[in-house]
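Please fill in the sequence for the structure shown.

STRUCTURE ENCODING:
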């Protein structure tokens, strides 16, 4: 590979690793909320058959997860060739890729506001989070090119997996859909969460509540700073991406800003959950199961949960695709979609982020 391109990629990865303390903490929290609440609760519901198991039709063999978490990897990683022409998907038996969806309706119906590939890299003892922006202009098999989240709206998890695989060349091993109502339920059970808000963010929450004929307004004299939010208020904050709401235009940065608000929200949720009492934890588990859909089998979940303490010691890294750089993107469909200028560079960025020096 061209040395300059390799250096450019290495520099980007260094920037991601350095970051700020806040970004690292939030990234860690974001992964743990899914590991503990997502996978953990799925496991508990597997015992009572209360979560929703749903396989997806992928036209290739799906290998069952059997590798023990944290086991010593004696073999050298296979050199993976990134080749968009052949259709071959990159994979590593010691890297588990789980595509996580945050959906606004039940199961495979509705939209997915959040799509994150969580790669559990047992070879390098890392958890890697690749956030795919929902407005990414992308080729959707059988539908042409449009926003990435249109894949979920038209074909659920199956089409979304096919879309990510065909465009980025990465094998998706499993998936999990967590309805946004899950987080609303959790917040209300634990008595609310404290989140730092600006005056505009406070006004946005109240505008959404008014527009949707809800009654849980923040007091009119609420000052910016740390604010206690209930489930509905916190959910509106996490989904805030600006625009016209109840007759007022809110400028809230862009999709990258929305992803940051979601991470801050989940940071607050898990911070409160850690302090929850045993009865509250039991109530959380009893409430969120019906909102989770996955193709992880009970035996696989057991394997993952058994390694939860090991995961706590893994380094956390994160990547957003497209990356937060306006020079690498363009607008499509009157500004509704964010196009990637150099797809070869984007594919390589994702591949090297997940598989590092194994990629040729």
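FILLED IN BY: designer on duty
SEQUENCE:
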């Amino acid at each position: 590979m061209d040395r300059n391109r390799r250096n450019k990629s290495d520099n980007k990865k260094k920037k991601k690793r350095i970051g700020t303390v806040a970004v690292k903490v939030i990234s860690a929290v974001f992964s743990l909320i899914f590991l503990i609440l997502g996978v953990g609760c799925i496991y508990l519901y597997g015992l009572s058959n209360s979560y929703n198991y749903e396989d997806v039709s992928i036209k290739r063999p799906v290998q069952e997860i059997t590798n023990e978490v944290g086991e010593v990897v004696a073999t050298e990683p296979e050199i993976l060739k990134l080749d968009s022409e052949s259709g071959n998907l990159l994979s590593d038996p010691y890297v588990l890729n789980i595509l996580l969806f945050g959906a606004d309706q039940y199961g495979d119906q509705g939209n997915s506001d959040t799509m994150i590939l969580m790669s559990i890299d047992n070879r390098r003892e890392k958890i890697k989070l690749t956030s795919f922006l929902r407005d990414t202009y992308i080729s959707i098999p059988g539908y042409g090119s449009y926003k990435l989240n249109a894949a979920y709206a038209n074909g659920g998890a199956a089409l979304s997996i096919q879309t990510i695989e065909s465009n980025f060349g990465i094998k998706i091993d499993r998936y999990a859909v967590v309805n946004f109502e899950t987080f609303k339920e959790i917040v209300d059970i634990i008595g609310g969460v404290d989140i730092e808000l600006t005056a505009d963010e406070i006004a946005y929450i109240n505008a959404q509540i008014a527009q949707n004929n809800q009654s849980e307004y923040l007091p009119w004299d609420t000052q910016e700073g740390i604010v206690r939010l209930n489930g509905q208020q916190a959910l509106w904050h996490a989904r805030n991406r600006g625009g016209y709401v109840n007759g007022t235009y809110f400028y809230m940065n862009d999709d990258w800003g929305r992803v940051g608000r979601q991470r801050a929200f989940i940071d607050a949720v898990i911070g409160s959950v850690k302090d929850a009492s045993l009865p509250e934890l039991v109530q959380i588990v009893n409430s969120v199961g019906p909102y989770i859909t996955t193709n992880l089998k009970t035996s696989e979940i057991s394997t993952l949960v058994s390694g939860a303490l090991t995961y706590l010691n893994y380094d956390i890294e994160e990547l957003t695709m497209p990356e937060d750089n306006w020079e690498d993107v363009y607008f499509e469909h009157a500004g509704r979609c964010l196009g990637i200028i150099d797809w070869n560079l984007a594919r390589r960025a994702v591949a090297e982020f997940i598989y590092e020096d194994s990629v040729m």
